[in-house]
Design a protein that fits this description.
With 174 residues, the protein is mainly alpha-helical. It has one domain. It is built from 7 helices and no strands. The longest helix is centred in the middle third of the chain and has 35 residues. The radius of gyration is 20 Å and the shape is elongated. It starts with 7 loop residues before the first helix and ends in a 14-residue tail after the last helix.
């Protein structure tokens, strides 16, 4: 079987959630180390550290969760399902898919409504850097959407087409 070389731009776009999560983790780590040094060694704390750390944590969680769905890295308890007959396993798989979809759509709708109601109308921003809270928590609906797309395309797209190239480590590489 001939493997096609994936365009670097396409690979970057497909892994944008991973790139954002990694950048957020690196910034979070550097800010934390610098904050500890400044607070305990120099005795002059970084005042904006908490705001940047919160921003990085929220973005890292939602983007990392999307990567986890795409690569099948989330924790799953499969022992019970695997003990069932093959026909019932397929049925349970669809039930699990419906539950995952329901939960993610619920989180998407509720997070969007909450952000619009609490932060959108008030225009609240962080006290020091004045970053609007909608930028901080606005990633939640987008993250939920990415999780839905990542989960279902990685699981079902190969059934319908052979032309989709999945990044390395995808659930569909068996």
């Amino acid at each position: 079987m001939e493997t096609k070389k994936v365009n670097p731009l396409v690979r970057t776009i497909c892994n944008l959630d991973l790139i954002i999560a990694c950048i957020a983790l690196i910034v979070l780590t550097l800010i934390t180390v610098a904050g500890v040094f400044k607070r305990y060694v120099v005795k002059d704390p970084i005042l904006w550290q908490e705001e940047v750390s919160a921003f990085c944590q929220v973005w890292m969680v939602y983007m990392g969760a999307s990567v986890g769905f795409r690569t099948g890295s989330h924790v799953a308890i499969e022992m019970l399902v695997e003990a069932l007959p093959q026909k019932f396993q397929k049925f349970i798989s669809y039930v699990i898919d419906i539950i995952v979809l329901f939960v993610l759509v619920f989180l998407l709708v509720k997070s969007q409504a909450y952000i619009a109601q609490v932060f959108g109308r008030s225009g609240r921003s962080t006290p020091i850097l004045r970053i609007p809270y909608t930028y901080l928590y606005g990633i939640a609906p987008y993250g939920c959407t990415l999780m839905i797309v990542s989960y279902f395309t990685s699981k079902y797209a190969p059934m319908f087409t052979k032309s989709i190239e999945f990044p390395e480590g995808s659930v569909n590489e068996e």
